[in-house]
Amino acid sequence: MLADRLLVKIPEGDAERRSQGGILIPATAQMAKRLVWAEVVAKGQNVRAAEVGDLVLFGPEDRYEVEVQGCDYIMLRERDLHAVAAERIEASTGLYL
Questions:
Q1: FRET partner for 20 with CA separation of 20 to 30 A, picked from 44, 86, 94, 96?
Q2: How many CA within 13 A on the CB side of residue 88?
Q3: pLDDT of the residue at 26
Q4: Are β-strands 17-18 and 5-9 bridged in parallel, bridged antiparallel, or unpaired?
Q5: pLDDT higher than threshold 50 for residue 97
Q6: What DSSP string runs through 2-13?
Q7: Which of 90, 76, 79, 2 minimizes the C-alpha distance to 38?
């Protein structure tokens, strides 16, 4: 991976969802700007906010799909991330000034 790029994989269980009422919502249903969680598989040398294994939140319109050795992945820029979920403790505020 180069520069500020991230390679992420969406978990397999995210294809179909159920509403609180129990209605099955297929993966092909259009949703209004729903953000997606994915796991970081690889990262470029300039990525500061995420590490391999972290979960990241991003908008589905900000992605590029790529196939590597028969597996589907998504390539993102670090600036397209909305949140990072990590088990490690961060001492900084996350602001880049």
A1: 86
A2: 11
A3: 74
A4: unpaired
A5: no
A6: -TTEEEEE--GG
A7: 76
Q: Which residue has the tokens 């994989």?
A: 9
Checking if the pLDDT of 88 tops 80, the result is: no
Residue 7 pairs in a beta bridge with 42, 75
The two three-digit tokens of residue 83, written as one number: 């949140």
DSSP-derived pairing of the beta strands 5-9 and 24-25 = unpaired
Cα distances (angstroms) measured from residue 29 to each of 7, 15, 25, 58, 81: 25, 10, 7, 18, 23
Task: Give whole-number Cα distances, 17 to 11, 13, 23, 31, 56, in Å.
Answer: 13, 8, 8, 12, 19
**With a threshold of 0.85, does the pTM exceed it?**
no
